[in-house]
Design goal:
- The protein is of the alpha+beta class.
- The protein folds into four domains: about 60 residues; about 45 residues; about 140 residues, 2-Layer Sandwich (Nucleotidyltransferase, domain 5), CATH 3.30.420; about 60 residues, no CATH class.
- Helices cover about 35% and strands about 20% of the residues.
- The chain contains ten helices and 14 strands.
- The protein has a five-stranded mixed beta sheet, with helices on both faces. The protein has a four-stranded antiparallel beta sheet with strand order 8-11-12-13, with no helix packed on it.
- Helix 1 packs antiparallel against helix 2.
- It is globular and about 80 Å long.
Length: about 375
Amino acid sequence: MGQQLGMGIYMSVSDQLRIEVICKYESGKMSAASACTLLSISERTLRRQVARYKIEGLGFIRHRNKGRRPWNRKPDPIKSAVHRIMKEVLFDYNLTHAREVLVQSYGLSITQETMRRWCQEIGMIKHKQKRRGKPRFRRQRQSQEGLLIQFDGSYHRWFSEQPTCLLAAIDDATSEVVHAEFCQSENVEDCMRVLHAIVKSRGIFKALYTDRAGVYGGMKRSGFSQVARALEELGTHVIYAQSPEGKGRVERLFRTLQDRLVAELRLNKITTMETANRYLKEIYLPSHNNHFQVKAENPEKAYRLLPLGTKLEDIFCYKEYRTMAKDHTLSLHGEKWLIIDPLKRSIADQRIEIRVKRSVVEAYFAGRLLNLIKIKKAA
């Protein structure tokens, strides 16, 4: 999801966020610390981008090297030769030693960084000893409500002997718990239901700060997380914490809830998820927010209204894509589905969007809903 502007500049969601943050920082509506957090850059990089923005306008988004071939790029045959030698001859050499042998015995002169990158592509990297961690410093709050929402799940024996997951979202600027809900696990359906409730009641927030779990599109599911896809469609940026301390506000919230909420649920003899959720939303959270919530530095809220015609049910759902077969059938999760709409023209070999809402399968082509029937198991 992006936007085409003048001067041949295509702006992705992250580019639009960068423009907005830099404009706010330049006009004095946002601190440097908040801008750096939202963009995941250093203050030096922020100052450099602001300087380019003043000179080039929106053109600063485009990297100056875009479309240019590096002048020092090695020919592909040399890369293939290095790959072959590393796999067949120097497979137990470290990078420095192997590079020396390539220069002396094979006459292949490459830089250390190029050697490291090429070997990493074929999994021929020996891991170094772990270095001491970098120092971490306390991060300042965001200046406005809706700029950054910290989100996480916590498994605990909240109201019974069986562990249950509590999904919670807290505003970084005010420490207000914007939503919390008990569920069976930290899965895609429950996470999207909680985020759907937040957007429906408050509006679209700027960024979600969470861990690198697969459900949020972390390292193991990079590029195909349904949660990250839904947020991207809304223009919300996902920031992945590099450590539990990085999202310390929501981590401390869970410690507080385990200390206070568990005792209150026991005192009120609550033992089921339905009654626990009712008590949490109607009684506990209003009291908790009244006690722990603080005022934002900037009283203006950063939540955005939903664009006209936007249906959250069409965003917070499973979406997959299939290619229509020549007989106007498609396969989905081991099952065969047939399009039964009267079509004037064939849509064979076209890309079909599949949406799954509460186990109901819907197919869309060019924004039009197609009628499906299940015919048999896929071969």
